[in-house]
Amino acid sequence: MGNDFRVTAHRQEVIEMPTSPESNDPRPDLVVTVHPSSILRGPPEARDESFAGLVADLRFAASLLDATV
């Protein structure tokens, strides 16, 4: 992704990762979200909002899994 990639600008974006010859997964996807520890490292007054954003990201990722089953 590189140093210019900003997670906050791409949250809940689905990025199709390249496949490798060894991979059995025909289309590995990556869902952009924050690392959970970033919530604890952030300002205490923003933790509830940050946690809610993480939960929303994970629900989005789960909905994609549900759609493929």
TrEMBL record:
Region of interest called Disordered, as start-end residue ranges on this chain: 1-29
Protein name as catalogued: Uracil-DNA glycosylase
